[in-house]
Amino acid sequence: MRLRSTLFQFFLPPQCPCCERFSEEGKQGFCSNCLSQIRWIEPPFCSICGIPFISREVETHPCGACVPHRKYFTIARALGAFEGSLQEAIHRWKYQGKTYLTPFFASWMAEGLNRYWEPGSLDLLIPVPLHTRRLRERGFNQALLLAKDLSRRTGIPYRKTILQKKKSTVPQVNLSGAKREKGLRGAFHVVEKEELSGLSVLLIDDVYTTGATVNECSKVLLKGGAERVDVLTLAHALRKS
Ligand SMILES: [Zn+2]
Ligand SMILES: [Zn+2]
Prior knowledge:
The chain is α/β, with parallel strands linked by helices and 241 residues long. Helices cover 34% and strands 14% of the residues. The chain has 8 helices and 6 strands. It has helices at 2-11, 32-36, 84-95, 102-116, 132-138, 142-154, 177-184, 212-223; strands at residues 76-81, 124-127, 163-165, 188-190, 200-208, 228-236. The strands form 2 sheets. Strands 1-6-5-2 form a 4-stranded parallel sheet. Strands 3-4 form a two-stranded antiparallel ribbon. Helix 4 (102-116) crosses helix 6 (142-154). The longest helix has 15 residues, at 102-116. It binds zinc ion (2 copies). One zinc ion (ZN) is lined by residues 46, 48-49, 51, 62-63, 65-66.
């Protein structure tokens, strides 16, 4: 099947990796229709979690969710809103195994990394780990795919073994805030603490949904000796309110 599609691609114009339509312009990458449906995150957004503000008239400041609950990470940034063609592409990548989307996502994230962090300010990329059971089901950890590709593009090393998930958790979207935090407690742990000491870490994940997962990971990494933890995700889910 794969050979057949490779042969087809040899004779046919390039396909959009998102909607799989053949490119009329003959160019590689996302087609103009899919690209136009991506809402890239630009200021103003929350200075802590990075969620974009609906009103364009406000300054960048902490949002209503970040003010009452202190976050363990310093800043979280994302490239696009989790909606439209970006949401669709992430779904196909994650649940239909279309891993050829990884370099597209990672190239956008590399741009974000250069935009939001000073050169030389990050020591290590750490992907949010999956529990081994989930990893067996899916066959890959999407955060690790991103961290690996991002490391190649930026020269910042990545480590996949320092942070591990030892407890399987239910998907957070179905839980309320307090239950979510409780359910995640003790889910992650740091091994090889000596490798983390004094480092500035960038946690990598695909989607920032409620922030509970990256916050719990940040807590554990700081406790494990990291000096500072920031977060970079491909997309940020918008609040339903
Ligand atoms: Zn397309
Ligand atoms: Zn916020």
